[in-house]
Write a structure and sequence with these properties.
Structural class: alpha+beta
Distance between the termini: 62 Å
Number of domains: 2
Largest sheet: 7 strands, antiparallel
Number of helices: 12
Number of strands: 19
Strand content: 25-35%
Length: about 400
């Protein structure tokens, strides 16, 4: 609406309200287009720079392919969730708003899934959408992904001063900063605060993924006595078998390992790790810290073998389910538990400090337990701790 310049200050409040109303109306049309799978209207409501980057025809073709797969039917389940509109962030030439709304996506497979297949698919869906809850309905042979859909509404020159939308994904962070500036991205507060962990006398529940772990107190520190299973995108299955996850947990590179811990929990430090696992016997240090090397000494292979067997027999602290998955672990000789600390190697590269258990094999006459730096690109398991709980 055209306004005379001298009315500008008087009409600012009215203009803001009108902008918000227009945003809500345009958003409702976009949601309706999604529910109807009206692909052309969906693209018309999408932020132009994203369409330009990916290509209009390519985007429509990809959506048609995804929603017309004869073996997988994808649909949006209608619900009564009300969209929550954040504050409109304004610059000289643009306006932005974050809209959050709970959505339910249904993915129904034509061919009957066996339990292992369903578990693997469920974990893959969860990894790609860590803020959503995924459940499998065997009778329907379908998955339901429920959670917040975060949409960024943009009003700028590229949209011809109309509200257009793009779904937020953390992988788009760098692109968003190049389009809107880092300051705008920060003001939009796109990343929700992590859900708090739920702790009982014997368990901690990672509310992000609804995963519950057994815990036990040792001295002043609480330990998870199961390996982390947080379905991060970069995590891998032990022995490439999803069926092993329940007992062995998932494996992570050192730099990603902290993300696997429930909120307010962390990776153990060197002192905590050596104190806890050193109770089972001597541990050999393989790093460059002379003080630590002198402290741990130079135990014999037979002593290290005894430590290994004691840990395996320990139902509470046995690493990575060695006892429960003995037949599996006989195929894989090493397993590793990350700490939150690191050392610089002679070549200047950073390596994560970890506890390593090695099973005897054709090249090793005896098993052993070691502590030292391991390349950060190795995959290891995660046991998290909390020293702030009573």
């Amino acid at each position: 609406m055209q306004r005379l310049p001298f009315f500008f200050l008087l009409l600012t409040g009215f203009a803001s309200a009108q902008t918000a109303d227009t945003l809500k109306q345009t958003y409702a049309k976009m949601v309706e287009a999604n529910n109807k799978l009206d692909f052309d209207s969906i693209i018309d409501s999408t932020y132009p720079k994203l369409v330009e980057m990916a290509g209009r025809d390519a985007l429509i073709a990809e959506m048609k392919r995804a929603f017309s797969d004869p073996n997988l039917k994808i649909s949006f389940v209608k619900n009564d969730a009300v969209a929550e509109f954040g504050n409109i962030v304004e610059t000289k030439d643009a306006r932005f708003c974050v809209v959050r709304r709970e959505t339910i996506l249904r993915l129904a497979f034509k061919e009957k899934l066996i339990e292992a297949q369903a578990q693997s698919i469920q974990e893959n869906i969860a990894r790609g959408n860590p803020m959503r809850t995924v459940r499998f309905e065997p009778k329907e042979n379908a998955f339901y992904s429920t959670g917040p859909d975060i949409t960024i509404a943009v009003w700028d020159a590229s949209t011809k001063q109309q509200w257009r939308f793009l779904s937020y994904d953390p992988s788009l962070e760098a692109i968003l900063q190049s389009w809107f500036s880092q300051d705008i991205v920060e003001k939009l507060q796109l990343k929700p605060a992590p859900k708090p962990s739920v702790v009982t006398a014997t368990t901690v529940t990672d509310a992000r993924y609804n995963l519950t772990y057994k815990i036990a107190k040792s001295g002043k520190t609480w330990w998870m006595v199961e390996n982390a299973r947080a379905p991060l995108p970069e995590a891998v299955h032990f022995n490439d078998e999803a069926a092993n996850d329940k007992i062995a947990g998932l494996a992570y590179k050192w730099e990603n390992a902290p993300k696997a811990c429930p909120p307010a929990w962390r990776l153990p430090n060197t002192a905590e790790t050596l104190e806890q696992f050193g109770k089972s016997g001597p541990i050999l240090y393989s790093g460059g810290d002379k003080t630590l090397r002198a402290k741990l000494g130079n135990p014999k292979d037979s002593e290290l073998d005894k430590t290994f067997n004691t840990l395996v027999a320990d139902s509470l602290l046995g690493l990575a389910g060695f006892g429960q998955l003995k037949s599996v672990y006989e195929k894989s000789h090493n397993t590793m538990l990350w700490t939150g600390e690191s050392e610089n190697e002679p070549d200047g590269k950073k390596s994560g400090l970890a506890l390593m258990m090695r099973r005897k094999n054709e090249n090793m006459k005896e098993s052993g337990v070691y502590f030292g730096p391991y390349r950060a690109y190795f995959y290891g398991f995660v046991r998290c701790v909390n020293s702030d709980l009573p």
